[in-house]
Amino acid sequence: MSTVQGTTSASQLLGSYAGTTATKSASEEGQDRFLKLLVTQMQNQDPLNPLDNAAVTSQLAQLSTVDGINKLNTTVQALSASYAQSQSMQAASLIGRGVLAPGASLPLQSGVAMGGVELSQPADGVVVTVSDQAGNVQQSIDLGPQKAGVVAFQWDGVRSDGTAAADGAYTFSVKAAQGGNNIKADQLAYGQVGSVTLGAQGATLNTTGLGAVALSLIKQIL
User: Fold this and answer.
1) Rounded Cα–Cα distance for residues 118 and 195 (Å)
2) How many whole angstroms separate alpha carbon 59 and alpha carbon 101?
3) Could you give the CA distance from residue 181 to residue 187 in angstroms, rounded to a whole number?
4) How many CB atoms lie within 10 A of CB 92?
5) Which end of the chain is least crowded, N or C, by CB within 10 Å?
6) How far apart are CA 151 and CA 153, in angstroms?
7) Which residues, in sequence order, are bridge partners of residue 54?
8) From residue 118, how far is each of 76, 124, 183 by CA, in Å?
9) pLDDT tens-digit profile of 191-217?
């Protein structure tokens, strides 16, 4: 008999909750439908075989869990939108700036070429070798000892024999060593940002020299 009384109390509580209907969101309307079904089930239960309190509590706990997941999804969507807006503003601020991103191209314009090196660890010595499109070495640039991280460099277009190289497309390779052992060194090509494209995958920088580059691949802003 005590079980029936406890269930009736829960039914009254749920009926009171379901009866307070104001303007509801889609998620809240779904909860209301669930509660109405539960209340109807409790109101029409067999008094001699009432619903178990533990079963009612379990169903309410499931409803609470679903509601929590919906709220979490809403929060994540808001954070994602905020991040996308922040990334868009950051990308737009780079228009007109020079950037370094993975690549081995070294275009020479008006006697100046820029590039970069990313070192995984400090190096006793770093040497950049510039070559033309046919693979002929034009110049070797000794950057000396360097700390780990990104190192930018310039080539003035002068070949090893002292003559001036013509403007055009060149490439470069890097060799870095620490304690007599070669260490990882990645080439970084230079580009100037002309515009920004916003898409589902994030912001893309449209550059001269590098083409389209994802914002996430930018290693240094010059």
Assistant:
1) 25
2) 54
3) 19
4) 13
5) N
6) 7
7) none
8) 34, 14, 11
9) 999 999 888 778 899 999 899 999 999
What span, in angstroms and rounded, lies between the C-alpha atoms of 209 and 189?
A: 8
Residue identified by tokens 């940002």 is 193
| CA 129 and chain centroid, separation | 34
**What is the spatial distance between Cα 39 and Cα 217, in angstroms, rounded to a whole number?**
56
| Exposure string for 2-20, b = 16+ CB within 10 A, e = fewer | eeeeebeebbeebeeebee
Pick the CATH number of 98-221 from 3.40.47.10, 3.20.20.140, 3.40.50.1820, 2.60.40.4070: 2.60.40.4070
Q: Is the torsion defined by CA of 170, 187, 84, 80 positive or negative?
A: positive
Give start-end residues of each CATH 2.60.40.4070 domain in the chain: 98-221
Contact of 118 with 91, CB cutoff 8 Å: no
Interval 60-89: pLDDT, tens:
677 677 667 777 776 766 666 555 566 667
Q: What distance in Å separates the CA atoms of residue 205 and residue 101, rounded to the nearest whole number?
A: 11
